[in-house]
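Task 17 of the worksheet. Students: predict the tertiary structure of the chain below and write it out as structure tokens. Keep your answer in the requested format; marks are given for formatting as well as content.
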Amino acid sequence: MNLRITISALSLGLLAAWGGLWAAPSAAEEPGGEELFKEHCATCHGPDGGGGIGLPLHLEDFLRIADREYLMETMRHGRPGRVMPGFEHILSKEERGRIADFIQGWREGPQAELPEVGEGDPARGADLFARHCADCHGPQGRGGTQPREAPGHITGEEQVVPPALNNSGFLAAASDRFIKATMLRGREGTPMTPFGEAEELSDQQMDDLVAFIRGWGEGVDPLAEPVIEVRSDMPMDELIPMLKMSINSHNFVFIRQQTLYEDLPPEGEEAESPVHILHFCSFGLLDKALEVDERVGTFLPCQITVYREGGQTVMSAINPKALSPLFHKPELELFCSLVSEQYLKIMQEASF
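Model answer:
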């Protein structure tokens, strides 16, 4: 009897041990904010947040006003058309929160109370922006020219690229109070000076500027049309390599480039106005979409057409988001919207 009891107890112990090996990972085993930052953020922002190809985050003036929600929304939306991608489909909300907590851990002082924002006049704000902001942020607020390669750890003000304000990702993450607080405090260690000091701008003028900047978020949705189109002044032979790089950077596989001509040129002459079609694919996304509805294959693999028109290089693609209602399957809309967003980001990044 004692032998049987001993064997039974041993068997239960072994089963418990094996069960522990196959159990789901505990919360303690999940990657922390520092580990996630190193994996997803440090390449651009630097291992200690000092910056590089991305903006520096380890700045006290920034950390005092950038709350957890702002950081999480920035990771969620990214900065379409700039270097920073959106991480909504890469990092879970909980993971974005752990990264935000890690970044906020750099803050040396308390979180600042953000200023109240009153009613502003966008027309007056437009004039103020042209005089005080456009030299750095661009006349249309689309930011400074971004480096194609990381310059290394940022050590001087001249290496900080002025961010885009006329950007859907920024406008989705930044509150009016955050924008005004940035004007008041500036960013010590960067070219952004505090406009609140020495009364360079009055409180009302800053409210006017906020109203003008916020107005950029009320434009036409670029993904509402059946065709997504981005134009660039860059020559076609320079734009296409940048487009291929952008495709790869968004985790798509470039398949091939197809060149078409409107007319065959006479022998010995070069063809005019070639049209280039770039074929690429995300096979994981393709499999998931086809599981929902095989008909989605009618506009796959992904294609971007490049041609010259009116002295500019045009990139265009069919908009899957606009086509998704034709399938009458709400679950397919997520995939179509995701691909449309990637199309736009790929083309915008290639054109900068």
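Marker's comment: The chain has two domains: 29-219, 227-351. The chain has 15 helices and five strands.
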